[in-house]
Amino acid sequence: MVFCLIYAVVIFAATFFGAFVGLGGGVIIKPLLDLIGHDTIAVVNFISACAVFSMSITSTIKHIKAKTKIEFGIIIYLSIGAVAGGICGSKLFDYFLTLFNNSLLKSIQGLVLGILLVVSVIYVNTKNAKSFKLTRPVPIIIVGLTLGFIASFLGVGGGPINVAFLVLFFSMTVKEAAVYSVGTIFFSQLSKLITLGVTHTIPKFDVVTLIVAILCAALGGIVGAKMNKKVNEKVIQKIFTVIVTSVALVNFYNAIAGFIAR
């Protein structure tokens, strides 16, 4: 019961900021649940995927109802790539589970994610950073495939990495990228959950904890999307920077602790 309550608080806060500034939620949920250490890496990945998927649904619906300006062509092409990438990332994760123990794989994920988060923060905060404006389907699909693969393999929504890629390849502001990031996350997590179901690799989990996670994530997505509409670009960028930097530090701590535990 205590862990269920802790999970509820973590997941609501994570998905709120996920929808608010484009973090996705999983990038906060995964390292914090790893840090708590109550469940195996497979269960944490599954709960995170379900929570982020729930958040992406409610957040996207909220933006559509609020008539947020969205180029659905970009989301569709990104999502096509994200689905394929998500399946590949999930399969690679399952393969790595056969090669490494739970602690070592957790450390590898934490190290890779921490590095990617630091790079994302540096790029987003670099003034006049080089950016592109992709318009053709194939390059957009390749970007989506890369994002889907990273998100699925690392067991996170991929939000901060998505935001950095969207700013880089589509010349978006962080606030604009937040909306597209959540839309792309929907499809990458959908592909991950479908893959788990089809391959019968869904881990044993506590049903009550999963239900609480999904409900808290849905609520977090609604409230976060509402806040995204209310605040300006500068506020979103600052919050993005603080949270992503903090999460990167947690990932590095998890990685170091895991390597030492070996």
UniProtKB/TrEMBL annotation:
UniProt-listed Pfam families: TauE
Family: Belongs to the 4-toluene sulfonate uptake permease (TSUP) (TC 2.A.102) family.
First-listed, main subcellular location of the protein, grouped into a coarse class: membrane
Alphabetically ordered keywords of this record: Cell membrane, Membrane, Transmembrane, Transmembrane helix
Keyword Membrane among record annotations: yes
UniProt key word Transmembrane: yes
Entry's Gene Ontology cellular component terms: plasma membrane
Segments crossing the lipid bilayer: 5-29, 41-60, 72-93, 108-126, 138-157, 163-187, 207-227, 239-261
Protein name (record): Probable membrane transporter protein
Protein's membrane topology: Multi-pass membrane protein
Compartments it resides in: Cell membrane; Membrane
InterPro entries according to UniProt: TM_pro_TauE-like, TSUP/Inactive_protease-like
